[in-house]
Every structure is written in structure tokens, then in C-alpha cells.
Amino acid sequence: MSALDEVPTLRIVAVENLILHEETDPRRAERLVVRIREDGVLKNPPVVAPLAKTGQYVVLDGANRTAALAGMGVRDAAVQVVNYDEVGLDTWNHLVAGVDDEVLFAAIKSIPGVSVRSMDLQTARRLWRDRAVLAYMVCRDGQVHVVEPGENLKQSARLLNQMSNVYRGEATIYRVETDNTSELGSYYDDVAATIIYPPFRPADILNLALNSAKLPTGITRHIIPRRALRINIDLDFLAEDRPVSEKNEWLQDWLRRKLQNKEARYYEEPTFLFDE
């Protein structure tokens, strides 16, 4: 790999050409509008992958930032373009707190089209890995319930949205990697259950984006190599009515100067941030 291969690919694209694969969180998007306006810059670019032959891009990370820019009427966005083949794709579990687990289970079970059955945790994990179930739920009392998949990907996405809508806005949600609800209870208060969402493949994400279907917000986790952060591109520049080609010429010159002046730094090791 050459030194240039390690430099993130940054590009200016029209916001209207950015396609979301997940729902947005309206409250978070509203907060982002306020923050972006106050800052006057786009700090972190959405990460996107090109959709073949369409001139569009699917947003892998940054749906709420994209929605915020669109809501502000900003014409263009600075994005990081990645090759989807080089991106890791995982799923976040939702630790649900602040609601009663029995009420939560009953509400999910009552969703039209949702079929739920109880089983032991090891069997649920195996069926989940084999993509034989849509999701499973581990309650704080240790009870495990699996949700059967829909007839196709689009229907399954609809069921997942209905499930997450049951507790979104009513509960506190933490994104976690484990399904060990009892262990998580030692770190978080008033835990109800952990919802384990299904694994997806890049082809699933592209399929959903191309068919105007979306997953619930905050369940897909894309692991981006050489992630670009804190680019701080001026908002007025992004909103200007200038050809995108001119803006990209400016952006490439900006990137060259950043590298030449040693104003960009790459951290290879995984990092915890405690001031978010």
C-alpha cells in the first residue's frame, strides 16, 4: 500500500444524491442542526459508498448529519467515499433501559406480523448466526425470545422498525456488543432487555437503499478504515451555488495543503473517547 492509498478519499457531492439505508432520529437531527449552525462548519463527513451507475451514494455512517444538512437547505456535503469491499459491517445490539421488560415484550409480541417464540439462549444464538431468525431478546430475568423473519428483506426491515419504535422515545437506549443482559445490568441502571438485531451483508444494505427501504436508526455498524474526522469544512462554502467540480478542486487543494503542512494525523490504534 502506498502512502496515497492511506489518505481518505474526500469529495463534495450534492446532498440530494445521498441515499440513506437507515431511518434518522429526528430529535438528534434537530440537535445537529443547532450545533452545525453554531459551529458554522461540517466537522465530520458522512461516510458513503457509490451506487453503481446511478451517480448516487449510500450513506454508511452519518444519516443524521445528512438529514441535518438537508433540513438546513445546504446544497452540498463533504463526504468520505469508501470502497464497500474494504469496510467492515457489524450490528449494534440495543440495551433497553427505563421500561418494564414484560411490558416491552408484550408490546413487541402484539405488533401485527410479528411472530415470537421462547427458547434457550444458545439455540437463539445459533439460529441468529444462521440467519434463521430475525432477532432475539434477552430479558433481565434471563428469558429469551426470538422473532421470526419476514418473507423478504424489505418486510423484515419493516418489522425491525416497528420493533424499535415500540421503545424508541419511551426508553433509554444504549448500543452494546454483547447479549449478556445480566452483566450489562452492573454498568447500566434499570435494564429491561437487550435486543439483538440481525447480521447484514453489504448487498442487503445496497438492496434496501435502492428500494427505498430503511433499517432502524443505530443498528448497523460500519467499521471504516482510515476514518476522516474534524475536517471542519465551512458551511457557507458547502451551501454556495457553485459547480461541484470547482468545489472539489478546492477540496483537493485543501487536502494537499493539510498533508504538506503536517496538519493531518493518522491514529492506527483503536481509541476510547471519554468526552463525547
**Count, helices:** 9
Fraction of residues in H or I helices: 25-40%
Strand order of the largest sheet: 9-11-10-13-8-12
- How many structural domains? 2
Total beta-strand segments: 15
Question: How does the SSE layout of this entry go?
Answer:
Layout: E1 9-14, E2 18-20, H1 26-39, E3 41-42, E4 47-51, E5 56-61, H2 63-72, E6 76-81, E7 88-91, E8 93-97, H3 101-109, E9 116-118, H4 121-129, E10 135-139, E11 144-147, H5 153-167, E12 172-176, H6 181-184, E13 191-196, H7 202-210, E14 220-223, E15 233-234, H8 235-239, H9 244-260
Parallel strand pairs: 2-5, 4-6
Antiparallel strand pairs: 1-6, 3-15, 4-5, 7-14, 8-12, 8-13, 9-11, 10-11, 10-13
Helix pairs in contact: 1-2
Describe the structure.
This protein has 9 helices and 15 strands. A hairpin with a 4-residue loop joins strand 4 (about 45-50) and strand 5 (about 55-60). The strands form 4 sheets. It has a 6-stranded antiparallel beta sheet, with helices on both faces. The chain has a 5-stranded mixed beta sheet with strand order 1-6-4-5-2. The model has no long low-confidence stretch (mean pLDDT about 90). It is about 35% helix and about 25% strand. The protein folds into 2 domains: about 5-90 and about 220-260, Conserved hypothetical protein from pyrococcus furiosus pfu- 392566-001, ParB domain (Alpha-Beta Complex), CATH 3.90.1530; about 95-195, Conserved hypothetical protein from pyrococcus furiosus pfu- 392566-001, domain 2, CATH 3.30.1760. With about 280 residues, it is an alpha+beta fold. The longest helix has 17 residues, at about 245-260.
